Amino acid sequence: MDPKQPARHTRIASVIAAGLAGLSCAAAIAQTATPATPATPATPAAQGLPATPATPATPAVPATAASPAGQGTAPGVTQIQPPKDPLVERREARREAAAEYKAKKKAAKGEYKDEVGAAKQERKVENKAADAAARQEMAAPKQ
To answer: Spans of biased composition, class Basic and acidic residues (predicted)?
Structure first.
């Protein structure tokens, strides 16, 4: 490529896209790279290409009517999830175990704080009673 000649970015982008993602992506990129004019429509059917799922010839279904199985699946078709990596499964299991441990620890800590608070209240009551008895003893007249 001669550095003095200008590069044709739309052609380069479409060639790269065709090499990386296949012919259907190249048509989509070519449509976005060159705007459609009324004289030359940029639909694949108008260019002699077959309609692909990426560029349908019919109007698209609204996003609100997407199937619950997934956005890219047709109605009545379920999408199969690939098996999880053992490391991911182990990480999730550890996360669940840590959450369970934290919940148990929080409950045990709450019980302990309640017991400590109750014991503290008992000591306060006992100390007040002992203090009152000691004051009465000191205030009693000596004979």
So the answer is: 86-129
Rounded Cα–Cα distance for residues 110 and 118 (Å): 12
Q: What percent of the chain has pLDDT over 70?
A: 47
Query: Which residue stretches of the chain are H helix?
Result: 9-21, 23-33, 86-139
User: Which residue's entry shows tokens 């000691």?
Assistant: 134
Contacts of 101 (CB under 8 A, 6+ apart): none
Widest Cα–Cα separation across the chain:
126
Which one-letter amino acid corresponds to residue 56?
A: P
Query: Contact, 85 vs 91, CB < 8 A?
Result: no
β-sheet bridge partners, residue 52: 55
CA distance 63 to 54: 15
- Nearest CA to 17 out of 59, 54, 56, 57 is that of 54
pTM of structure? 0.36
Query: What does the pLDDT look like over 49-65, one tens digit per residue?
Result: 555 555 445 544 444 44
CA dihedral defined by 26, 30, 31, 34, rounded to 10 degrees?
170
Residue linked to tokens 């109007």:
59
